[in-house]
Design a protein that fits this description.
The protein has 463 residues and is mostly helical. 84% of the residues lie in helices and 0% in strands.
Length: 463
């Protein structure tokens, strides 16, 4: 324990705390629709697939907005980006607070695009937290910063009781004091030590264009503007969005898309982080459908599962630091596949089913921490960009989980087909990790040795 404290005190601990709180409140905003869906759905008379689309829209928005935010972080101070994100995240609850009537699915989906700005904070909070620390402790530091996804716990604990007592629009407004607190702490403690290069104006324009496109795509999918309707249109939405986002990247940055390792991490993080956020967005609906659990209890279980996944994430980083990231990832992905296979080919009773879900979230947490222990070592000069791109892939995975589960339930009256798809993808990802493990370990060794040489040279110059 003392060794961990020494590692944390070796850098800017206060800035790490500010980054954690910024991401924590952003994550809370990001998943607001998840535990409130059992209240929103009946009021708007939404079928299962539409319910999945509603809770998935902020997830997709946060995923795609991470890319321009990651690009913007390369050029602009992280604190300023954080203030912008907090302000935009506050607009949906402020709007709902002033409206006497329940909005339509289309309007709620548009508000969900803005809620996604909270999830996009990942592309700023993580590199900003890590910028004040040496490469040797990045697994621990980034694991702690990313444990801000514990904000999902507040979603499950706080908002369902408020929705039952005061209605879900007022319950959403309860996030506003949390956003204000995050802004104050960021102003007092936040510091960004990363070198900056590039155009701030271009980064801001890319962010605004992506947000506008997302709003247009959501309305277009719901209204059939693109000649495709129903489930195929919903499944096509992330591909349209990410295709546009990639075109906004400078040609030099798009080169990373030619690397196999980039696509490997897109898949890995779509399963680990996408699994965490997608299941957290949909788990209340899933528990009610599978086990007829009361809405409040489903929210509390969501909170407990999210707490497990979030608090395990730093452990994933530590395990990766000690036993290598590929080994930790391999075990995490194998565990995810096993649990998905259980729900695909069996119908576990309530107690073993809930225990299996806790195991699933443990694997999510380990996988998330291990993945981002590898990223700064594999791409040391493109940390912000790759954080944004890989985070986007994770969010896209999170979009597909509630959407596919909702479609499976509506079409087959069962979730088994959706879980079978997720299990297959986890198995493929584990095989990819096995194949690339040695290369990733060599990259990490090279970066560590270069950092140690730089530190020694600085010490000699200081003497």
């Amino acid at each position: 324990m003392s060794r961990v404290l020494d590692q944390l005190q070796s850098g800017d601990l206060r800035s790490l705390c500010a980054s954690f709180l910024y991401f924590d409140t952003g994550f809370t905003v990001w998943l607001l629709f998840g535990p409130l869906a059992p209240y929103i759905g009946p009021q708007l008379h939404l079928p299962p697939a539409a319910m999945g689309f509603l809770v998935a829209t902020p997830v997709l928005s946060g995923a795609l907005l991470r890319v321009p935010l990651g690009q913007l972080y390369q050029a602009w101070d992280g604190r300023k980006i954080a203030f912008m994100g907090i302000f935009l995240s506050a607009l949906p609850p402020l709007y709902l607070l002033t409206q006497p009537f329940a909005p339509s699915l289309a309007l709620l989906s548009l508000l969900g695009v803005l809620l996604g700005v909270g999830g996009a904070s990942f592309a700023v909070a993580l590199p900003m937290a890590g910028s004040g620390y040496a490469p040797q402790v990045q697994g621990l530091v980034l694991g702690l910063a990313a444990a801000g996804n514990i904000g999902a716990v507040l979603d499950g604990v706080l908002f369902p009781p408020l929705a039952r007592a005061y209605g879900w629009p007022l319950a959403i407004a309860a996030v506003l004091p949390l956003l204000a607190m995050a802004a104050l702490v960021m102003a007092a403690w936040g510091r960004d030590y990363a070198p900056k290069a590039g155009s701030v104006a271009r980064g801001l324009a890319a962010f605004a264009a992506t947000a506008a496109l997302l709003g247009l795509l959501v309305l277009g999918i719901l209204n059939g503007w693109f000649g495709v309707t129903g489930h195929p249109a919903i499944l096509l939405l992330p591909l349209l969005g990410i295709g546009f986002v990639v075109t906004l990247l400078p040609a030099a940055q798009r080169k990373v898309l030619r690397q196999f390792d980039s696509w490997a991490f897109f898949l890995i993080y779509a399963i680990t982080f996408g699994g965490f956020v997608g299941m957290s967005a949909y788990i209340a609906v899933l528990l009610i459908a599978l086990y007829h659990i009361p809405k409040i209890d489903a929210g509390l279980l969501m909170a407990a599962l999210a707490f497990t996944g979030a608090t395990i994430r730093p452990l994933g980083g530590l395990l990766a630091d000690r036993f290598t990231g590929p080994r930790a990832l391999r075990y995490a992905l194998s565990g995810i596949a096993l649990v998905d296979l259980l729900f695909a080919f069996a119908a576990p009773a309530r107690l073993p089913g809930v225990v299996a879900l806790f195991l699933l979230y443990v694997c999510f947490g380990v996988g998330n921490g291990a993945a981002f222990q590898i990223v700064p070592m594999r791409w040391p000069d493109r940390r912000g960009l790759m954080t944004g791109l890989i985070g986007a892939a994770g969010g896209i995975g999170g979009f597909y989980i509630p959407v596919i589960l909702g479609i499976a339930k509506q079409q087959t009256m069962s979730y088994r087909g959706g879980f079978a798809i997720f299990a297959s993808l986890a198995i493929v990802a584990a095989l990819v990790v096995q194949a690339r493990a040695d290369a990733w370990i060599r990259h990490a060794t090279h970066v560590r040795m270069a950092s140690e040489r730089t530190s020694q040279e600085m010490a000699i110059e200081g003497d």
